[in-house]
Amino acid sequence: MAKLTDRQQQVLAFIEQEQASSGMVPSTREIQAHFGFASQTAAINHLRALEKKGVIQRQAGKARAVAVVSTLRRETILDVPIYGQIAAGMAEMQDQEDEGMVSLDVASAGISKGSKVFALKVRGDSMIGAGIHEGDLVVLEHREPRSGDVVAALIDGETTLKRFVVTHGRPYLKAENPEFPNLLPTRELIVQGVMATLIRKFRK
Amino acid sequence: MAKLTDRQQQVLAFIEQEQASSGMVPSTREIQAHFGFASQTAAINHLRALEKKGVIQRQAGKARAVAVVSTLRRETILDVPIYGQIAAGMAEMQDQEDEGMVSLDVASAGISKGSKVFALKVRGDSMIGAGIHEGDLVVLEHREPRSGDVVAALIDGETTLKRFVVTHGRPYLKAENPEFPNLLPTRELIVQGVMATLIRKFRK
DNA sequence: CCGGCCGTGATCATTCACCTCGACGCGGAC
DNA sequence: GTCCGCGTCGAGGTGAATGATCACGGCCGG
Fold this sequence. Notes:
Two copies of one chain form a homodimer. By secondary structure, chain A is of the alpha+beta class. Chain A folds into two domains: 6-68, Arc Repressor Mutant, subunit A, CATH 1.10.10; 77-199, Ribbon (Umud Fragment, subunit A). The first copy, chain A, has helices spanning 6-22, 28-35, 40-52, 69-72, 106-109; strands at 56-58, 66-68, 77-81, 101-105, 117-121, 137-141, 150-155, 158-167, 170-174, 183-184, 190-201. In chain A, the strands form three sheets. In chain A, strands 5-6-11-7-8-9-10 form a seven-stranded antiparallel sheet, with no helix packed on it. In chain A, helix 1 crosses helix 3 (40-52) and helix 2 crosses helix 3. Residues 87-95 of chain A have low confidence and may be disordered. At the A-B interface, strand 2, helix 4, strand 4, helix 5 and strand 11 of A face strand 2, helix 4, strand 4, helix 5 and strand 11 of B. Strand 11 (190-201) of chain A pairs antiparallel with strand 11 (190-201) of chain B. Chain A binds a DNA duplex through residues 5, 7-8, 27-29, 37-42, 44-46, 49, 58, 60-65.
């Protein structure tokens, strides 16, 4: 891919910035106005140059038909709401206060498109044996758990992270920390989500 | 936010799908054609309804002036290239084979916009004490390490993950695993990146 | 009976990409 | 040097793409 000129870099930056802030790609006239060109031709030429260098794609004749290749190549982005640490009543998935958002691509998340997804901040260290630490962000998928999955389960009105194990046809919840009781009886087991991804942010 | 009709959901899905695949929002006529409407008005009405319900934003008079609010609210997405496990010669950041891509928002990544970023797949368990396991994906930022940071360093032509510690004004690399030598002398220390985020994908 | 939803059909007014012709500077090729 | 390509910009014009509007009708729940 050929290198971009300073000017072309500026134009590309403008396009990307506009798309991020207003959601739409600027037209040739808007580019013209932004850079103070007296003619559209200047803007069009820059677009053509960017297209030839492969950083954008265009569709002849169509309005605002500019697509930035780097965002085009990207996998679908999943927006995961963070429901905090306490998840009482989550079974209904309602009235949950959003405490933020994580966005990552579906491939990295390993999540089947279409299923309900949410995230929780890990509190405590009952799963430290599985490499899940306090403060980690856990992305969970709402689906039926399989044996061996790490799940967020509602026990005594509180959500905790445990490993879901089925032995002799009976489901158990297992904490991965020697200081915790290894097996918990699981009557009225409510699994709120199955762990799909873990995200840990290091010092800022 | 008012609930969407089935039809409105379909229209929104079409818009999002088009934007993802071609990079641009469909025009009213394209929406019309896709759904087999005999009139543009049908398409326009749906857009108006979607706008009133707050899921899209439009700008009067402008072409393809539709912005999906959910993607608009989103933080800036960072595209991180995965450079694999072996990173010989990475100091130049050149000729690196892309083995994929991870995309996540800058806020979750905790990365200062503008710095060079890349990712590596963790091999071995020398950092298991820090909760970093084999197979984890580590996002690294190219910057000067501070004491206590986890860094990817080039030692004997191979990249390994270690904790960077400065004691008595002298830098050391420390493995977080009792089976490994605790402190490594660090002459000619090349730090390729400072760990910013960890991503672990669970069973698929 | 009204308002929201879902359409058809035709027309109008802009927005917008594209084209032609021309200009200037710069660096490499001949 | 001289020519050529490329980047960058100006002036003006054309036709297609596109959003917007008006008029009309049907369906449904409150």
